[in-house]
Amino acid sequence: MNPNYKKKALRFITAFLVLLSPLLVTSQTITSPDKNFSLQFELKENGRPYYSLTYKDKPVIKSSKLGIEVKDAPSFMDGFTISKSAQLTSDTSWEPVMGEEKTIRNHYNELEVTLAQSQNNNRIIKLRFRLFNDGLGFRYEFPKQADLNYFVIKEEHTEFNLAGNHKIFWIPGDYDTNEYAYTTSKIAEIPALQKKATIEINAQQPISKPSVQTPSMMKSDNGLYINIHEAALINYPAMQLEVDASSFKFKSHLVPDAVGNKGYMQTDTQTPWRTIVVSDKATDILASKLILNLNEPTKYKDVSWIKPVKYIGVWWEYFVAGKSTWAYGKENNVKLGQDFSKLTPNGKHGATNERVIHYIDFAAKNGFDAVLVEGWNVGWEDWIGNWKEEVFDFVTPYPDFDVAKLRDYAASKGVKIIMHHETSGSATNYERRLDRAFQFMKDNNYGAVKTGYVGQIIPRGEHHDGQWMVNHYINVAERAADYKIMVNSHEAVRPTGLHRTYPNWFAQESARGTEFEAMGGLNPDHTTILPFTRLMGGPMDFTPGIFQTDLTYYNTGGNQHVNTTLAKQLAYYVTMYSPLQMAADIPENYDRFPDAFQFIKDVAVDWDNTYVLEAEPGDYVTIARKAKGKNEWFVGSVTDENSRTANLKFDYLPKGKKYIATIYADGKDASWNGKQQSYVVSTMKVDSKTTLKQFMAPGGGFAISIKEVPAK
Amino acid sequence: MNPNYKKKALRFITAFLVLLSPLLVTSQTITSPDKNFSLQFELKENGRPYYSLTYKDKPVIKSSKLGIEVKDAPSFMDGFTISKSAQLTSDTSWEPVMGEEKTIRNHYNELEVTLAQSQNNNRIIKLRFRLFNDGLGFRYEFPKQADLNYFVIKEEHTEFNLAGNHKIFWIPGDYDTNEYAYTTSKIAEIPALQKKATIEINAQQPISKPSVQTPSMMKSDNGLYINIHEAALINYPAMQLEVDASSFKFKSHLVPDAVGNKGYMQTDTQTPWRTIVVSDKATDILASKLILNLNEPTKYKDVSWIKPVKYIGVWWEYFVAGKSTWAYGKENNVKLGQDFSKLTPNGKHGATNERVIHYIDFAAKNGFDAVLVEGWNVGWEDWIGNWKEEVFDFVTPYPDFDVAKLRDYAASKGVKIIMHHETSGSATNYERRLDRAFQFMKDNNYGAVKTGYVGQIIPRGEHHDGQWMVNHYINVAERAADYKIMVNSHEAVRPTGLHRTYPNWFAQESARGTEFEAMGGLNPDHTTILPFTRLMGGPMDFTPGIFQTDLTYYNTGGNQHVNTTLAKQLAYYVTMYSPLQMAADIPENYDRFPDAFQFIKDVAVDWDNTYVLEAEPGDYVTIARKAKGKNEWFVGSVTDENSRTANLKFDYLPKGKKYIATIYADGKDASWNGKQQSYVVSTMKVDSKTTLKQFMAPGGGFAISIKEVPAK
C-alpha cells in the first residue's frame, strides 16, 4: 500500500507540478502510481497529438491519434505545440452514498498538457490524462479564452489503436438502443458479424459502419483484459466506436443530433473522460473504481433521503403471464383529456386496486421496501409506435387505480409505491410535465420513479444517446432531487458513473435485461458478460429473481423458458450490483419456493466491501460482498452454458470467528434448458480459512448468505 | 339584415340537412347567406376533389385541387367518391372577451362532404366548407375509423387557383420568420422579386421555391379584394403558399419538422381552416370576423382576469438610445448558475431598480396599467446566435433588479410589471422551466408575460412555424392560463384567430413592428398593409407611440428616423387593433409633448364597435371605434408616402347629441422624412351629421378622440 494513503483522510492530495518550457518538448510520459502503466503523449506530424499506453511493458494502446473536428471553425486536430505541461499526483478517498465499497480510494498520477494552435490566434485546448493503478482516463478540455466561447463538434477523432486481434464482447453501434445481445468474437470478425448482431429492437438506429458500443470488453492473446468506456457523460453525446477490423483500431463516433451535429459546446468545458481499464486479472476489471473516480462528487447538500431499495412490482406478469396488461381499455386510439372511464375495459388490466393491494401485502410480509406499479396511468392503449408526443400525462390514473386509497394503504403497511413514468420516448412531453408529475408524486408519498424511453425520441430526430437526451436524463435526475425522488431509468443512455454525482439516479436498465427472458431468452453467458460491460458504468436494474423459469407454466401458448437455473437467479443479487434490486417474479411464485425466496429476503443491497473472487468474461463471475453496517456476507456465482465448480475461499471473513453459511445451489441435474428449478439449500459453518468447491449446473449459479452464529 | 339574426341570441342555429344518395353525385354547390358567394365542390378525374368560388358571379378561385399526401400509407388525394353530403345554416352571435366588437355575428351556410376511398378499405375523410357573407372557410377532417388512427402528413395539396394576375401585398415564404417588409407587385412578378424581398433577418429559413406567406392580400383588376389565410392553427404546421406565377395558382406548403415530416395526426382530427375573405370593398376585408368565427369558443371557465392592457416599458431605449442594454455584464460568455453579480457591469444596463421605478412612477401618473421590463434576468450577455439551449432560467434577476422591492413598489402605485420571457428560440428550455417561471410570476404579482423567440429553434431542426412550435405556443398559453397569466408572444407563428379560444394569448408580434423603425425604418405604406395581412389573424403588439421620431436626437452616431409623422404614431392606437397597446417611447419624450401624449392617455384599448371608414391596402386606412362601455369614440387614419385628405363622416355617433372631437393632425409642413414632429391639436364640436375633410401629410395620419360635451 502506498504510504501516502491514509484511510481516514477523505481529501488528501499530494501535488507535484512540473512546468516545462513551451515549444521545446513534443512528448510527455507518466506512469501509474504502481508503475505498471506507462502513458506517453506526443505531438507528431504537423503537430498532431498522439497517445499510447502500456501495461507491464505490454502495449495496450499503440500510438493513437487525438483530435476534435469542429463545424464552421478551425478544428482541434493538428497544428499544435505544447505550450505547457504539468504533472500531479492525487491520492484521496471518498464515501459513496451507496455502493459496492464503503470507501473508495482515488489514486492517480495526472498529466495535463496545454496545446496551442499558433495559426489560430493561439487558441488552446488541454488534454488531461489520469493514470490509475487500474487504467487510464483522459479527456479534452476547452478553457474559456478570447477566441473560443461557442463551437459545434462535427466529430471527435479519438483513436484506440489496439495491439492485436483481441477477443471482444460487443454489441453493435446504435444511436438509440443498448439492448442487444452480446456477440463474442475476434475484432477482425466484427464486420462480418455486425448484421447478425444487429437484431431487431424497438426504435433502433444502427450505425452502418462496423462499430461497437461501450463499455467494450476485450481480452488479448497475451492475457490482458482491456475495457474501453467513458466516464462523466454530461452535456455531450455518447461515444460509440468505429472498428477498423484489419488494423484493430477503434475510433470515436459520437451520436449526432437532429441536424447531424454532435455537440454544442461552450467554454469553459470538456469532453467526458475516455476510460481504458486494464489488468492481467479479469477480477481487477470488475473491482475497478476508475470510472466512479473520474466522476465529480455530488453537489447535493442532503443525501439522507437516498436509500437502497429492494422491491417487487406489478411488472413481470405483463411479460409472461399473458393475464394482465398495462392498458385498461380495448381501444387503440386514445387521447389525453378524454374520459378513460368510458373506455371498454379489456378485462386484463394489471394495476388494479385489488392487485396492487395484494402486492403491498406481500411486500410488507416479506420485508420489501417498495412495490413498483406499471400501467397505473392513462395512455397505454396506444402508447407505442406512433411517434406521438402526448402519450402520458403522469398524473391521471386509470379508473381502477385509486391513488389516494393505495397511497394510504401502502403507508399503513410501511411500504412505498414506486411511480412509473413511461415516456414512450417523448422526452419533450415529459420535461414540460415534470414539475407537475413530481409534485403529484410528493403529494402521494412516492419516493422513487422508474422512467422509460421506449420508442423513437421526441424531439424528433434526436436519439436516446445524443447530447440532448444525455442532458435530459440528468435534468430529470436533478429535478427529481428537488423533490427528493430517486430515479431508475430504463432505455436511457448507458451509465458512465454519474451515480456518484447524482446519487438519486440510483439505477438504470440500459442493457438487455430480464424482460428478454420472456422475449426469446437471454444467452446463458449474458450475465457473465454484463458485469464486464454494462455494469462498468453503474448499477443495473436487471430485475432478477424469476423462480417460475418455465413460462409454459402460464398456459398462454408460449414455448419459452428463462435461460437460467433458479439458483442462478439468486446469484444475480450479488453478481449484478445495484442499490435497487427487484424480486421480479409474481408473489404467487415466491410463495411456492419459500426456502429459495429466503435468500432474496435476506440479501443486502448496499455494501461495505466487495471481493471479486473469480471472473472470466463470457464464462463465470463469483463475487462476495459484506452488507453495509452488518456482519453479513453474501456470495453470488454464475456460469455460462457450461457446468463449473467454483473454488471458494472465505478469507475475507474476520479471522477467528465462526459463521453459518446458507448455500443456495443448483441441483446436480439442473440446467438452464432443462431442470431449471432443481436446487438445493444447505448450511455449513465457515470461517476465514474455509475452502469450498461448489458445483454449478450448465447455465447455473449459486448464492450464499453468511451470518454470524447466533449467540446461545 | 337577415331576419333570422337576433342580437340577443348568443346561440341560435337553424339547421337544414340534405342527405344525398351516395355515389351518384359528384358535385355540390352552396351559396352564402346573402347569395353573393357561390362555392362548388366536385370530384373530377380519378375521383380527385376540386372546389371553386365566385363572388357576385366573378370568379375568385377557379376550379382548384384539394388533397393530403400521407407518408408511408395511402394518401388522401384521389380515388374518392362522395359517400354523404350535408348542408346546414348557422346564425349565432357571441361576445369576445376583448375585441373590436362587443358582439360578433357568426352566420354561414355549410357544406359537409364525406369522401370515401373504396380502394383503401373505404377510408373516409370529410371536407367542411363554411360560406359566410364575407368569404369562405374550409378544412379537411379525419374521423376516427377502423383503418385510420395515426398518420403522418407529407404535404397538403390545397390549391388556390386565382382568376388573374392580381396585385398582391406579400412577404416571402419562410419557415422561421414573418418579419419581412411587404412587397407590392403583380403575382407574375413574385419570382423575380423573391430574392430582393428576402432581406436578411435573424434565424430565417426562406423557402427556395417562389412562395408567399399568409395572410396574403390581393386586389384583382376587376375590383375584388381577396385575402387568403387560415383559422384555428392547432396541432398542425403553418401553411405557406407556393406560387405558380404563370398560371396565378397558389398551393399549400406546410412547414416541415426536424426530419422533414409535416404533421403527426391522430384521428379524430382536422386541418386548420383555409380562409378566403373576399369583397369588392376593401373596408369589408378589415371588418371581416370570418377567421374569428372559425375558431372555437374558449374553454376557460373564468375569463374575468383577462383584461386589456395599456403599457409602457423599458424597451425602446434598448433599440435607439444607445444608452442602455438588456445585458448587465461586459462578458460574452456566461452560464446559468454562475454568480452574475461578479460580472463586470457594462454600466449601461437598462432594467435597474432606479430606471424601473422611474417607469412605474410615470405609468402611475399617466394612467398606464403596466410597465414591461426587458433585460431583468440573467443571461443576456450572450443570448443570441449560439443555438444555446440554457440561455435563460426566467427566475434569476440581475443584481441591480430587486424583484421583491419592485413588486412592492409597483403594487403601491397600482401598476403591474409585465414579465419578459425571451427564450432565444430555445423552446425546450422554456417548457421545462415553465411551471417554475409562472409560479415565480404569481409569487411576484406579475399578470402578463411578453414571450420572445429570437433565434434558431431548439428542438434543433424544428421551425418557428412548424407543428411542434405551433403546439408549444398554445401550451404556453394554456399553462399561463393555469396561473391566470396573459401572454404576448413575439417571433411566434402569425395568429389565426386563436385569441378567441385562448383569450389570455391576447396579442402577438409576428410581423415587422416598430422595432424596425430603429433598424432601417418601416416603409411608409407598411401600416396601410398590416391591417390587411398580419392583423387579419389577430391583435398585434405593434408598439406604436414614438414621439422622438428623429433618432439622431440621441447623439449615438446613427442617421436614422422613424418613417412616420408623430400624428401617424397616434393613429396606430386605433388603426392597429390590439387589447394590448404600448406607448413605446421613453417617458422623457412624452413629457416633452404633453398635448399629443394626451391622446395616448385617453385612447381606449377595448371596443364596443368598430367602423372601417376608408381603406385601400398599401394606401390608407381610416377606422373609428367606440370605447367599450363608454360614450367615447376614437378615430385613426394613416396614409402611405402620399399626402391625403380623408373624408370623414361621424354617422356612427348617436343621433341628436353633440360631442367634442379633439383632432391630432399632421402639421401642413409635416412629412415622414421631414418635419415628422409637426402636428396640430385642435378641437371641434361634432355630431352624427358632421363631415370633415382632414389633411394627412406624406407618411402621416391623424387621430381623433370624441367625448360627450361635459354637462354644465
TrEMBL record, chains A, B:
Superkingdom of source: Bacteria
InterPro entries per the UniProt record, alphabetical: Aldolase_TIM, GH, GH-type_carb-bd, GH97_C, GH97_catalytic, GH97_N, Glycosyl_hydrolase_97
Keywords associated with the record: Calcium, Hydrolase, Signal
Domain Glycosyl-hydrolase 97 C-terminal oligomerisation: 606-707
Signal peptide from the UniProt entry: 1-27
Cofactor(s) in the UniProt record: Ca(2+)
Subunit architecture: Monomer.
Protein's recorded name: Glycoside hydrolase family 97 protein
Organism per entry: Flavobacterium zepuense
